[in-house]
């Protein structure tokens, strides 16, 4: 479908909704810590990786991020039921989200895409550094 769409409208930006993988290891983590997520499925990383080779400009993966948060917090509360400090359990959640974002950057080739974007921005700016509200933006 994406291939034919790209042929008909080359360069037209596409937003892909529902691109979360819903990793089975996180579903297992949630369920083993008291959750009851049944029949949760998502898109395989390979499918999303292939799709971003087209004119995809945005990929929505919020469900994977929410699952990472839920799994981390549930596990902490299961392992330490006396914990009540938000800075502690949110720290675990933040770490889980960070790992998921790193993984998604690899899947989506985000580092390379950011480099290409920065290169084009640098060319448009004539090689000069850009500012936004007095903050110098990295190029």
Give a verbal description of the structure.
It is a single chain. The chain is mostly helical. Helices cover 56% and strands 9% of the residues. It is built from six helices and four strands. It has helices spanning 2-8, 24-32, 45-51, 62-79, 86-107, 110-124, and strands spanning 14-16, 56-59, 130-132, 135-137. The strands form two sheets. A two-stranded parallel ribbon has the order 1-2. Strands 3-4 form a two-stranded antiparallel ribbon. Strand 3 and strand 4 (135-137) form a beta hairpin. Helix 2 (24-32) packs parallel to helix 4 (62-79) and helix 4 packs antiparallel against helix 5 (86-107). The protein is elongated, with a radius of gyration of 19 Å. The two termini are 35 Å apart. The mean pLDDT is 86.
Spell the H/E element sequence.
Answer: HEHHEHHHEE
Rg, nearest Å = 19 Å
* Largest sheet entry: 2 strands, parallel
* N/C terminus separation: 35 Å
Q: Classify the secondary structure makeup into a structural class.
A: mainly alpha
Identify the strand order in the major beta sheet: 1-2
Helical proportion?
55-70%
Number of DSSP strand runs: 4
Query: What value does the average pLDDT take?
Result: 86
